[in-house]
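User: Hello, can you help with two protein structures?

Assistant: Certainly.
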Amino acid sequence: MLTIAFPAAAFGTNCYVLAQGEGEECVVVDPGIGIEETLREVLTQHRLKPSAVLLTHGHIDHVYSVTPVCGGDTAAYIHSDDRYRLTDPLGSASPGIVGMLEQQFGSKATWREPETVVEITDRQALTVAGLDLEVLHAPGHTEGSAMFGIGLLPEGVRAPEELDRTMITGDVLFAGSIGRTDLPGGSHDAMQRSLRDVVLPRPDSTLVLPGHGPATTMRHERTTNPYLQGLTA
C-alpha cells in the first residue's frame, strides 16, 4: 500500500494519502489546515487521483481543507455522529483558533460544506480506491470519532516486530497518549469505553497511524501507554 504522510500547516495534524500504488486512485485522510499545496505536489509526483476523503472526526484541524479536495465524484466520509460538525466547524472553534488562521494565512477563515458527504457507521466495511477498510467507531474525543482498520501495511515498513495491518486512529490514540476529552462533544467515560472495547482488542501486529505525532504499534502502546494501563479488553 502506497502511504504518504505529511503534517498540516497548523496543529501538526497528520494528513495521509493511501493508494494501491503509483498512478492509481487514492484516499486522502484528514486534510487539515494549509495542506492544499503539499497535497497537489504529492498527487502530481505519484500520479494519483483522489476518489474519497476519510475524516476521523469533525474538528477543524482535521477537516479544514476537505472541500477543496472533494468535488465531482470525490465524497467526504464521516461518522454519522460527527456529520453535524461539517455544517460549520468554524462556528464551534474558539476565537483564538479563528484569529490564528487569519493571522497565519492573511485572510479571514471561511468554510464551505462539501457537496457530497457519506455518513459511515460502526463496523461498516468500505472499499475505496481499491482498498478495503473497516470503520471502528471510538467516541470520546468527539461523539463521532472513528478509526479505520486496513489489512495492509505501507510499502517499505521496517520494524523490529512483525506487523501485518494498519489502523488510522485520528485523535483517539497517539504514541504514548490519547486525545483530549474536555472539548465540546468529548467524554472521558466514552473514551475509556473506546479504549477498552475498541482499541485494546486490536492485534499487537497493528501499525498505528495517529492524527498527530509519530507512528507507533499496538504492541508498544499496550505495554507503555499510561492511558491503556489497567484497562482489560
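That covers the first. Now for the second protein you mentioned:
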Amino acid sequence: MKSFSPKDFIVDVGSGASSITDAGIEVATKTKKPRLVARVSQFIHEWTPFLLVSSYFPFSVCLYLVCSQTFVEVFFFIYLATNFYVAAGTVLEAFFSITPIKESRQVVEKASAKNWVFPTPDSDLGMLDLILVAYLPNEKDIILDRVDYMVNKIIYPRDKIRINVLYNTPKAIPDVENDLRVLAKEHHHLRVVKVPNSTSKADNLNHFLTHCVEPDSDVIAIFDADHYPHPNASRWAMERFAQSSDIDIVQGRCIIFNSQDNFLTKMIAVEFDKIYAVSHPGRAVMWNFGLFCGSNGYWRSDLLKKLKMDGSMLTEDIDSALRALSHGANAVHDMNVTSYELAPTTWPTFWKQRLRWAQGWTQASARHLQMTWNAPPEQRPRTARIRFGIFSLLFIREWSYYLVTQCTCLTFSFVISRWPKSGLGALHFLFFQYPIAWWLFFLSVLCLVATLWITNRVKSEFVTRWDIVVFSVFYAFYIIVNATIGLYGHARQVARYSSWNPTVRS
C-alpha cells in the first residue's frame, strides 16, 4: 500500500484549482449533481403514469360538464353499443364453450368406464419435459412443496418424463437450494437448474431451450412455481398430441384453489372459471384459434425451441402465444388438462400483477395487431374469421378500457349536474338518460346473466354458487377497476416504464 507523508497534503494556495479543498468540493459537486438529476428523473419516470391516469378522470368529468348535449348523446350511444357488442361476444363465447365442455366430460366418462385405461399405449407416448419456473426469493416458501408434488403425484411413465426446475435468484438461499439438489439426487427424472445472470421467466426458459433441452424431447410443458397440476393432466395433454399431428399447443384450465382466503381471491377464482372454462374454449370455437396463456401450457418442442421467449416483453408468454399464432400454429384448449394455482391475497399484490399484465398486453397488441391484415404462412391460411377474432382481441379489448372509464366519468358528470329530484328521475338517472339505453342496457345485462349461468355450470370445486352471485353484484365495479388498470398499462407504455414486478407467493 502506498504511504503518505505530510508533504503530500501541502497546499499551494496560489494554484487555485490545485487546492485539495477546492478540488474536493468540485468533485463532490460534480458527483452530487448527476446523482440528484438521476433521482429526480427516476422519480418523474415512475410517477408519470400515475399523474396521467389521475388527471384523466377529473379532466373527462369536467369535459362532460361543459360539452354540448348532442356530444354527450353521441358518446353515450357509442359506449352502450360497444358495450353490447362486447357483452354479446362474451355470451356467444359462453354458448360456444358448451360443446368442448361436453366433449371433455364424455372423454372422462369413457376413461372412467375403462378403469382409466387411456387410448394411447404407454409405449407410444412422447417424451415430456415439464418445466417449473421460479423466482426464488418470492417463491422460496412454496417451491420445495411443488417440486415434491410433481415428482411424486404426476401420473405419467417415469421413463418418458423429465421434471425441470429452472430458477433464478439475486442472492443465494442455501437451505432451499441445497434441498432442491437433494431432491434431484433422489429422483432420477428431476433436474434442477440455477440459471446464471437471469432476471426473468423469459431468461430461464431461453436458457433451458438453448442449453438444456434434450434431442429426444417431444413436448415441453410450462408451469409457474405456484401450480399443482392434476395428476392426470399431463396424460390428457399428451393424448391430444398423440391423436392429432396438427396440434401444436395444448392449453389447459387454470383453477384458483385459495378462493376462500378473502373477498379478493373469491372474485379472482370466479373470474378464472369464467376465463379458462368459458371464454378461452368458447373463443377457440367461435374465432377458430386458441392461445397459450402463460402456464399449464404444452408445446411441441420444435416450435418452442424455434420461437423461444422475448425477454423485452413484460408478458413474454402472451407474446410467444401470438407469435405462434402468426406462424400458423394450432393451439387447442382442453378442460381436462387442469392445474391449480394461487391468487394474490392482497390488493397491492393484485394491482402490481394486473398492471404488468395490462402493459404486457398493450405491448403485445401493438406488435401483433398487424395479423389482422398481413399475409400468413402459406401452409395455414388466415381466414377472415380468424382476422376479425384477432382484431376483437387485440384492438377492441384495449379500446374498451376508454369506453368503460369514459362512461364512468359521464356518470359522475350526471351526479354533479343532473342529480335526480324525484323517484322517476332516479329511475332514469343511470343508463336510462336516452331511449336507446333501455334496450342496450337490458340486452347487456341478459348477456351477463347468461354468461354467468354457464360459468356456474362449469365452476370449479373451489367456487360456490354464492361466490358467483357476489361476483355478479360487484361485476360493474370489477370492470371499472380492470379498465383503470388497463389505462395505467397504456400510460406506463407511453412513459416507457419497464420494471418487471414478479408476483409474491406464499
